[in-house]
Amino acid sequence: MEPRKFANNVLMIKHFFFYDNHQKYLTLLKIFKKYNELWANDESFVISKR
What we know:
Elements: H1 3-18, H2 21-41, H3 43-49
């Protein structure tokens, strides 16, 4: 990978993590909670994973 491309990727990653950070955090939290509820409610999934 070219150094310039690499630097661009780092900038994009920084932008992703620091831009509108609070909103992203809330969204991730919502997704995680929803996933947790689904996983807890889906007993067949839990049983199949044992």
